[in-house]
Write a structure and sequence with these properties.
The complex is a heterodimer of chains A (375) and B (445). Chain A is of the alpha/beta class and 375 residues long. Chain A contains 13 helices and 15 strands. Chain B has a 7-stranded mixed β-sheet with strand order 2-1-3-4-8-7-9, sandwiched between helices. In chain B, strands 11-12-10-13-14-15 form a 6-stranded mixed β-sheet, sandwiched between helices. A two-stranded antiparallel sheet of chain B has the order 5-6. The chains are: A alpha/beta (375), B alpha/beta (445). The complex binds thiamine diphosphate (TPP), iron/sulfur cluster and magnesium ion.
Chain lengths: 375, 445
């Protein structure tokens, strides 16, 4: 197969289709709207359904219920819509609902620069809903990765019964690029593990060890299903028992945190003897790549760590990359949101420098070289 | 097997206060389900928050208990995902208020769920605050001097929003189970507004008993009974019908097999700036696709106002022999300016163009000071020749021919591959006319 000239949003839609997505609900918002258009082209043809909701609250409400009725579900939005998703995201975490939420970030806060990019929702994604329980977020840097990580996001969502976040920005979502998706290597598709037939009953949140992922049974399936927004026991019944509540909180936490090795996706490009490390993610990792290449061409030794998994923080990978490092440079299209995570992990004698801006333009290779002192 | 009840006392008796209307509504639903005798595995009871929201767990079918005011969205999601399910939503007047947009939209869409609102004129669960249905002058914990607001007519609102089947009932109606069964039988959206007493708050505070509820109704001029019965195809049915009738309108693009050569040595940035309606975005895409036919990598970004048919339109194209990492163009190599709108938007960029940049500008445009190598081209005349919609294509061809980055044939190949025959014909002529402009004036070839 040959090349296509497609934008990140199309690659996301195609990655979702490849994962077997058969339900999509969304509310139009620049720069995410074209995902709605692509899904409208793809999903009904595959026998599924696309619905434009009356608002983002309804959009995620439709999605959560459809996912619990057995569909593989995607939704997409941008900053203002993420704000409206917040409460339902909590519900999806509480109900252990597998679905994928795409945030094509735009410059904010509020309406911000509606048609312009930035990546100001990094910490917002981590703390998007009340309760503060962990979430998983992936961030692609290229059109091919948008396709790949959307597919993987579905796998993780299904495997860990949790909402999965795909975080990118306008600068990937609506920039066209020459890409060959057929060359992208994908892992095997993972579908949620269902409760086998013949059991006495379905306990929607059954686990033995806290990190276990409960088997699922669909609404309308062979077992009576229960779903609740309230703190519940393993059977899905409301409980006020502090011990049972803590056990459930520990489960929702351990399920994600114990998966860290499986869900850590990073790209390491280390140089022997380097004392400088650039940690980057998303589309800005491409600016970083140019900056690093230029500095290396001039004889500087520089290591690079590109994070595809943003949440939970891939701490081990970051710590390993920082061994022997004296200076860490973190370029971001926000005012230093991941910088604070890196600062927490950096060796005490290492200097951590953020190359931060949020003026709608990409952080340039030149800015990374200059502010990061790469030369 | 015959189902004698769809309720269970597994988790104890119903939790409502003595005399609460919710008890009557919930039991009426149970009796309705007994009349219908559906498989409990094919029924979902959806609730949200509020006292009424406590009811799903007392039923034996599937139970979905969601966020305050959003139960309609979950019910719709379940029904859309599995149209074979019977999906019944129980919610309060408070929920109907906060979820007002869902209440309107489910009626309009005609998604085949059944909605039962336990309308007790206040928020029972949170301490008797006023709701969207609290009568004017009604006393609640938040309207201690009497409600200054007017109540919303839920039935009238749902009818106005396009509901197919709407019924107004009270907790005192002997036929409530039959009414609910009839609502469930509707293939489309069905709504029953059940007027009730909250015996903890609204009823005692307002001395509301059976007679007072009927007085309230007659005071508004409202009737008990069917408000509308206008069946029409249910959403999922209609959705599939529409899709089947309209499918095949979309064509997928074939992939690009590189088959031309190129002479591009480095990442090269091209900007074309003009006006809305000049097809700049699509011409730029075809140009970039042409470069891929010539074995290059390409990226494209567009800039235009939200009001797409006015003002400027700018496309940034990068072509490169290698993978393109940084997609910004800090120092353009080629700049094409075909209208005043383009100048207005890009003036600052033009002022800062480096001397390595070649600027192709329409003859009549007054340019600001710039270090770029300016090539004046007769774009207005070219436009007359190729048409308004093809000037962007023609001007890109002029730049392409002049720069010699890759063969004009590759650009033509993209047009022949991706445009309809009729439009391709016009654009091929535009490419030829554009290329001719610079093949005479330049030796680059
Ligand atoms: C987003 C949100 N806001 C506020 C609340 C608090 N709350 C719980 S129930 C309720 C009102 C319920 O009233 P209604 O729907 O009429 O049910 P009733 O208790 O009268 O049966 C409110 C405001 C909430 N749970 N969620
Ligand atoms: S507070 Fe009101 S609505 Fe709630 S159970 Fe008591 S009487 Fe019923
Ligand atoms: Mg109420």
């Amino acid at each position: 197969m040959g090349y296509e000239f497609i934008e990140g949003n199309e690659a996301i839609a195609r990655g979702a289709m490849r994962a077997g997505c058969d339900f999509f609900a969304s509310y139009p918002i620049t720069p995410a709207s074209s995902i709605l258009h692509y899904m409208n082209d793809f999903v009904p043809e595959a026998g599924g359904l696309v619905i434009q909701a009356e608002d983002e609250i309804a959009s995620l409400g439709f999605c959560i219920a459809a996912a619990m009725a057995g569909r593989k579900v995607l939704t997409s939005t941008s900053g203002p819509g993420m704000s409206l998703y917040s409460e339902n995201i909590g519900l999806a975490i509480m109900g252990e609902t597998p679905l994928v939420i795409v945030n094509i970030q735009r410059q904010g806060p509020a309406t911000g620069s509606a048609t312009k990019g930035a990546e100001g929702d990094i910490q917002f994604t981590r703390w998007v809903t009340s309760g503060g329980l962990p979430i998983i977020a992936l961030s692609p840097a290229t059109v091919e990765e948008a396709y790949e990580l959307t597919f993987i996001a579905f796998n993780f969502a299904e495997k860990y019964r949790t909402p999965l976040f795909l975080l990118t920005s306008k600068d990937l979502g609506v920039t066209k690029d020459s890409a060959n998706l057929d060359l992208v290597k994908l892992p095997p598709r993972f579908d949620r593990k269902k409760l086998p037939p013949g059991q006495k009953e379905y306990l929607p949140h059954y686990f033995e060890k806290p990190e276990d992922v409960p088997l699922i049974s669909d609404f309308g399936g062979d077992y009576i299903a229960r779903y609740t927004t309230s703190m519940h026991d393993k059977a899905g019944y409301l409980t006020a028992n502090p011990a049972v509540i803590q056990e459930m909180i520990d489960h929702l936490t351990a399920k994600i945190e114990s998966a860290i090795d499986d869900i850590t996706l990073v790209k390491e490009d280390f140089q022997e003897g380097a004392d400088t490390l650039v940690v980057s993610y998303g589309v800005i990792s491409r600016s970083a790549a140019v900056a690093i290449e230029e500095a290396r061409a001039k004889g500087r030794k520089i290591s690079s760590l590109v994070l595809q998994t943003l949440w939970p923080v891939p701490e081990k990978a970051i710590r390993d990359a920082m061994k022997g490092i004296k200076k860490v440079v973190v370029p971001e299209m926000n005012m230093g949101q991941y910088l604070i995570e890196i600062e927490k992990l950096a060796p005490p004698d290492a200097k951590v420098i953020g190359v931060c801006k949020m003026n709608t333009t990409l952080v340039t290779p030149g800015e990374i070289i200059e502010k990061g002192g790469l030369l | 097997m015959t189902y004698t009840t769809y309720m269970t006392d597994k988790i104890g008796p119903l939790p409502f206060c003595p005399g609460c209307g919710h008890t009557i509504l919930v039991k009426a639903l149970d009796q309705a389900l007994v009349m219908l005798q559906f498989d409990p595995k094919k029924i979902v009871i959806v609730t949200d928050i509020g006292c009424i929201g406590l009811s799903d767990r007392y039923f034996t079918p599937h139970g979905f208990h969601g966020l305050h005011g959003r139960s309609i969205t979950y019910a719709c999601g379940l029904k859309l995902a599995r149209p074979e399910l019977t999906v019944i939503t129980l919610m309060g007047d408070g929920a109907t208020g906060i979820g007002g947009t869902h209440f309107l939209n489910v009626a309009r869409r005609n998604i085949g769920i059944t909605l039962l609102v336990g309308n007790n004129f206040n928020y029972g669960m949170t301490g008797g605050q006023h709701s969207v249905t609290t009568p004017t002058d009604g006393i609640t914990s938040t309207t201690p001097w009497g409600n200054p607001e007017g109540p919303m007519d839920l039935c009238g609102t749902s009818v106005a929003a396009g509901a197919a089947w709407v019924y107004r009932a009270t907790m005192f109606d002997k036929d409530l189970p039959e009414v609910i069964a009839e609502a469930i039988r509707q293939p489309g959206f069905a709504f029953v507004d059940v007027w009730e007493m909250c015996t903890a708050y609204y009823a005692p505070l307002n001395k509301l008993k059976k007679q007072e509820i009927f007085d309230l109704l007659s005071g508004y001029g409202f009737t008990i009974g069917l408000q509308v019965d206008k069946p029409r195809p249910e959403y999922s049915v209609k959705y599939r019908q529409a899709y089947e009738a309209g499918k095949g309108v979309l064509k997928s693009k074939p992939p690009i097999e590189p088959k031309f050569g190129n002479s591009v040595q480095k990442q090269t940035g091209i900007i074309i700036a003009g006006s809305a309606g000049q097809k700049i975005k699509s011409a730029a895409t075809l140009f970039a696709e042409g470069s891929i036919f010539a074995g290059l990598k390409a990226t494209q970004k567009d800039d235009y106002p939200i009001t797409v048919q006015t003002g400027h339109s700018v496309a940034e194209i990068i072509v490169s022999p290698n993978r393109i990492d940084y997609t910004g163009i800090d120092n353009p190599d080629y700049f094409i300016l075909i209208s005043e709108d383009g100048l207005a938007r890009m003036r600052q960029t033009i002022v800062k163009l480096p001397e390595t940049c070649v600027l192709y500008a329409s003859e009549e445009i007054e340019l600001p000071e710039t270090k770029a190598q300016v090539r004046r081209l007769p774009f207005r005349e070219l436009e007359k020749k190729v048409g308004k919609l093809s000037l962007s294509t023609a001007s890109l061809a002029a730049m392409l021919k002049d720069s010699g980055m890759f063969p004009v044939e590759a650009f033509k190949e993209a047009i022949l591959s991706f445009q309809s025959e009729k439009i391709a014909d016009i654009n091929i002529k535009a490419i030829e006319a554009g290329a001719e402009l610079t093949s005479k004036s330049s030796s680059a070839g």
